[in-house]
Predict the 3D structure of the following.
Amino acid sequence: MPEELSTSGSGPAGDDLLEDLGKYVNPGRSRIYRLMGMTNIEYRGEGSRVIDEQGNEFIDLCAGYAVLNMGHRHPTIIEAVTRQLEKMGLATKTMLSRPEVDLARSLADITPGGLQRSFFCASGAEAVEVALKVARMHTGRKKIVATEGGFHGKTLGALSATSKGTYRDAFGPLLPGFIHVPYDDLAALQEAVDENTAAVIVEVIQGESGVVIPGDDYLPGVRRICDDAGALVIFDEVQTGLGRTGANFACEHYDVVPDIMTLAKSLGGGVVPLGAAIVLPEIFDVFDENPWIHSSTTGGNPVAASAGYAALQVLQEENLAEQAREKGDWALEYLKRVQYDYPTVISGVSGRGLLLGMHFADPSGGVMVLTELFNRGVLVVPSLMNWTVMRIAPPLNIPDEDLHAGLKRVRKVVEEVAPQLEEM
Ligand SMILES: Cc1ncc(COP(=O)(O)O)c(C=O)c1O
C-alpha cells in the first residue's frame, strides 16, 4: 500500500469502504463487488496501468468503458488542464470563453464532412438529448427510429432510444414517437422511416450490445433511406469515436457523414467528463433564434474544454487511430486463435480497431473469466446490453508488451476455466 495512505479495514479493499459504499452510495454495487471478490480500491492510473491501494498493478484492457483512449493521466492533457486551472476553473458565463471556442473549432476541423457547430455537455446521454431535440425542432417531426440492441444512455430521452427492456421497463412511459427496428437490416429500416420521421439514431458499431459490426452497405443505406424521407441521420459515436475503431470516427470506415454526431467518453481525455453533439450548421440554425432554448450551465466549461482540446491534439499527434488499427488487427487474430482452441468456451470474437468482443458460449463463462482475470491483474468489462460478451477496449496507446501480456493471461484463464465450463 502506498505510504501516504491510511490503512482502512482488514480485507484487500478495506471492508469499511465497501460497507460505506453500500450505506452512502448504492448497496447493490457494494453487494456485487463483494460477491465477485473484486474489492480492491483503485489508487493511481498511469498509461495502461492501474495501481490499487495495496500496490497491486493491473493491466487496463477496458479503459473505463472506453473513456481512456489516451490512457490514464496523459501528460499533455494533465498539463493543459493544470495550466487552465491556474487561471480559471468554471466560466462566469458573462464573458466570452476561449477554451470552448477553441475546442469547437478543433472538432469542426477533425470531424468529417460539414459537421461544424458543437453543443457541449458532460456525458453521452446528454449529447444524445441534444441530438434528439435538434432533430425534432429542425424537421418539425416527432418520430425517431432507433435500433434493437442500440445503447444511447439512460436519461429519459436517450433511454427512449436505448432498446434494452431491463433499463426501460421501470420508467415508462418513455417519450412517445420512438420505434426500434433490427440493427443492420435495411429492409426493416426502409419500412419504418417515413414522412413523419425526424431522425434515425444509430451506433456505427454497437458497443454495449457486444461489438456488433454492421455490413458494409448498412450505413450508406441508412443515409440513403433518410435522405429519401427528409429525415436526419444521427450517428452516436460516444463509444466508437476518437480513434477507438481504427479511424478518428467510425463512420469514416464507411465513408458516410451524419447530420449530427454525438461524442463523449474519451473526449474529456480521460481526465474530465465531456460530451458534445456536433451538428451541420444549417440544421443547428434552428437554435439560433433562442440560443438558450437548450443549455447547460457547466457545458463547455474552461477545464473540460481545455482537456478536450488537448485530447484531440494527442489523438492526432500520436496517430491513435492507426495505433488502434494495428494493435486491434493483431489482438483480433490472437483472440480468434483462442476461440479456435477453446470453441466450447468462446463462441465467437468480433472487433474493429481496439473495440473487441469475446462472445461466450455460456453466459457464466464471461463472468468467470472476467473475475479470474481481475485476480490475475487484468481489467476487462462485460457488455451492458449483452452479458455474454466480454469487452476488450484498452487505451489506444497501450504498449505492445502490456497488450500481449494481458491477452496471454486471457488465453491462460480461458484454458483453465474450460474444463469447469464443460462440466456445467
Ligand atoms: C454509444 C453510446 N451512447 C451513449 C452512451 C451514454 O454515455 P454516458 O454514460 O456518458 O451517458 C454510451 C455509454 O456507454 C454509449 O456507449
